[in-house]
Amino acid sequence: MSALNDLQSPVLSEADLQFWEENGYVIAKKVVSPACATRAAQAIWDFLEMDHDDPDTWYPDPPRRSIMVEIYQHQAFWDNRQSPRVHQAFSQIWDTEKLWVSFDRGSMNPPTRDPNAKQFDMHWDTNVNNRPVRFGVQGVLYLTDTAENQGAFQCVPGFHNIFEDWFDQLPEGEDPRRQDLHALGSIRVPANAGDLIIWRTTLPHFASLNTADRPRIVQYITMNPANDSNEEACRSRVNWWQERLTGLGRNTKEKEHYHGKTAELTPLGRKLLGMDKWD
Ligand SMILES: O=C(O)CCC(=O)C(=O)O
Predict the structure, then answer these.
(1) Ligand 1 atom at minimal distance to the Cα of residue 107
(2) Domains, the chain, ranges and CATH?
(3) Exposure string (b/e) for 207-240, b if CB count within 10 Å is 16 or more?
(4) In this predicted model, what pLDDT tens digit does every residue of 53-110 receive, in sequence order?
(5) Closest residue CA from atom 2 of ligand 1
(6) Whose CA is nearest to atom 5 of ligand 1?
(7) Cα of 56 from ligand 1 centre, angstroms
(8) Distance in Å, CA 8 to ligand 1 centroid
(9) What is the rounded distance in angstroms from the CA atom of residue 124 to the CA atom of residue 199?
């Protein structure tokens, strides 16, 4: 590891990496401190203008359209993105430290108030009809301790191993996204505040229905090999951070642009953004 990421021992053990190979997901434990997790969770509550101790504030009228929260640029989010242990976990998965971090948001998944609510459907975030699907990874950082029934991340473990065969046996014209993906053997993944779940994009996944009494609060983070020879891409990424634009490719001027403060970056954060080059 470089001086930017001078950790004494790998975040993912041999056993973790073996688990990753078999299951297509892994929990990288304690990648950020409880204090960093709490700060990011509080940033989400403030952004939503809700009180984490007052359930009456969790269900606005009109209702939120999804569990997602369009917060991207808070210092607490950047502190997690530039955490050396987050970077190291992704470096182990990609087998390179030269990575760029994703422009991802947060989410708040409150307890359901509908006794008849069904489990959420799962999905893929990649075009699964465009095969073979390239290797890719996604990640969710838990900002609160999350029990199995508290809206935990759910996926079909090991599905990456049978992905191509499963598609091949689908009857002609069947839409893969409309199958009963839970029947393939979905599981829910509990973990603690500060733990990061990384999964392969070929696993069907989503948050699960929250039947506990506390919300689940998370920050999405993934990393991909850096493309820092592309000057235009670097400029656009730096502009995204500096102007505090919305992420996921939308790049619009919303609440954080008008009311936020540009986050401070560490030397590692500058490379993960694309402001400084890895070589
Ligand atoms: O919130 C989760 O646990 C999973 C989120 C998800 O489905 C996604 O990032 O595509």
Answers:
(1) 1
(2) 31-273 (2.60.120.330)
(3) bbbbebebbbbbbbbbbeebebeeeeebeebeeb
(4) 999 999 999 999 999 999 999 999 999 999 999 999 999 999 999 999 999 999 999 9
(5) 207
(6) 206
(7) 25
(8) 31
(9) 11
Give me ligand 1 centre to Cα 125, in Å: 9
Q: Is the CB of 140 under 6 A from ligand 1?
A: yes
Amino acid at 238: V
Sequence-ordered list of residues with C-beta below 8 angstroms from that of 152, at least 6 positions apart, any chain: 146, 188, 189, 190, 191, 207, 208, 216
| pTM exceeds 0.85 for this model | yes
Mutate to test the pocket of ligand 1, among 148, 153, 196, 210 (most ligand atoms within 8 A of CB): 153
Residue nearest atom 1 of ligand 1, based on CA coordinates: 207
